[in-house]
Amino acid sequence: MTDEAARVTLKTSGDVAFARQAAAKAMAAIGASTIKSTKFVTAVSEIARNAVIYGRGGVISFSEAGAAGQKRVVAVCTDRGPGIDDIDRAVSDGFSTGKSLGLGLGGAKRLVDRFEITSSSKQGTKVTLECGPR
Length: 134
Ligand SMILES: Nc1ncnc2c1ncn2[C@@H]1O[C@H](COP(=O)(O)OP(=O)(O)O)[C@@H](O)[C@H]1O
Ligand SMILES: [Mg+2]
Known about the structure:
α2 packs antiparallel against α4. The protein has one domain: 2-Layer Sandwich (Heat Shock Protein 90), CATH 3.30.565.10. The longest helix is centred in the first third of the chain and has 20 residues. By secondary structure, the chain is of the alpha+beta class. The model has no long low-confidence stretch (mean pLDDT about 95). About 35% of the residues lie in helices and about 25% in strands. A 5-stranded antiparallel sheet has the order 1-2-3-5-4, covered by helices on one side. The protein contains 4 helices and 5 strands, in the order βααββααββ. β4 and β5 form a beta hairpin. The site of magnesium ion (MG) has 5 residues, from α2.
């Protein structure tokens, strides 16, 4: 995984596309299956889009975790936006303060092997997504 691909600044929807590319590249680097890569890329896309739309932009970085032969990809997306008041409600399907379906967070959570979210009005929002190859 190159350093160039490992960190994407998120300001526009074009940047979300770059994040998708970086996610696919990171999954290819661990030899992920097509289905697993697609799941991870979709989750990354939702989280990156949220950072652009709700988080006033942010950064997503990709790294590998685990020993050789059992590598996983970890994506950490941070923003300095207003934060999320009620995380459980935000993650539940159908909740949106925008004009979309409210399936992004819940969907992303179901698509990855590990999903963590922390948020506060002072620090903004941080979402961690982790996926293994299969
Ligand atoms: N990075 C973020 N910063 C602030 N609020 C967020 C962020 N991500 C999500 N949210 C809040 O959580 C809600 C649910 O997000 P999501 O499930 O992706 O649905 P949608 O994007 O369709 O609104 C959003 O409508 C928004 O209120
Ligand atoms: Mg969303």
